[in-house]
Amino acid sequence: MQVEGVERNASGRQGSSPAGQPVISVEDLSLTFNTGDGPVYALSKVDLTVDEGDFVSFIGPSGCGKTTLLRVIADLERQTSGSIRVNGLSPEQARLGRQYGYVFQAPALYPWRTIERNVMLPLEVMGFSAAERKERAARNLELVNLKGFEKKFPWQLSGGMQQRASIARALSFDPKLMLMDEPFGALDEIVRDKLNDQLLHLWRTTRKTVVFVTHSIPEAVYLSTRIVVMSPRPGRIIDIIDCNFPRDRTLDIRETPEFLAVAHRVRDGLRAGHSYDD
Ligand SMILES: Nc1ncnc2c1ncn2[C@@H]1O[C@H](COP(=O)(O)OP(=O)(O)OP(=O)(O)O)[C@@H](O)[C@H]1O
């Protein structure tokens, strides 16, 4: 999904859209949950810009606010202070305008619907014709390597295949932005490697902008153009690391000194963010 007039900068990253507008822009954003046990400072003074074509990962220990930040972008939570724009719109406008696809930690497929009909669900809600629904479901299931599984039910598929179906569902209405909350966290390492490769291929061919939550350093370094390292109590960004690996990388790069150097910097950031009483 190359936008006309968009140039690549020296680091190989796409710049902003022709209008000069980032896909996501977060400024001085904080979010406090008021709970029976007192306030929880989930996010504190977060500043972040995501440009068109970026693959940005949020990494950090449990409770550092990764999911909360993703949910603020998706208008599933509201910030306490600060501002956020998604394609120049408020998160609510972006949600109502179906500007993003969201992939949850668990596949969340309806067990009584076939895979094809799960993928078609958002298209039904949005009023696409039956022919268009069928064509889009087929196209997106092929994109995630699930051609031939259209008539199966979720329980007939492995966990990795179910997660791929949920990615096809999020892609079905062709949003330019994908928000993915640790989609492969529950899968074993071999399946995860394979899905990482498929996701990278998908990102490369569709030119989507991706925001991705993970706990895994290798996953973050392998997939991302930028890694946002976060730390808890209060949840905040402590480092943003550029990864300039070629778009058509393969898993072999994980053995290279460049890859290990980035992984090392992420690990250092995660360590620095932990206080000694954690
Ligand atoms: N609805 C809520 N009400 C109260 N506290 C919440 C709520 N949602 C999240 N929190 C708290 O906010 C903090 C950030 O949570 P969040 O789920 O964003 O962290 P996370 O980094 O995604 O963690 P994990 O990696 O375990 O998913 C945590 O302390 C969490 O307990």
3D structure, described in words:
The protein has eight helices and nine strands. The strands form two sheets. It has a six-stranded mixed sheet, sandwiched between helices. By secondary structure, the protein is of the alpha/beta class. The protein has helices at residues 66-73, 91-96, 115-125, 130-143, 159-171, 189-206, 217-223, 257-273; strands spanning 24-35, 38-50, 55-59, 81-86, 100-103, 177-181, 209-214, 226-231, 236-242. A hairpin with a 2-residue loop joins strand 1 (24-35) and strand 2. The radius of gyration is 19 Å and the shape is globular. Bound molecules: adenosine-5'-triphosphate (ATP). Adenosine-5'-triphosphate binds at residues 33, 35, 40, 42, 60, 62-68, 235. This is NitT/TauT family transport system ATP-binding protein. GO terms for molecular function: ATP binding. It comes from Labrys monachus.
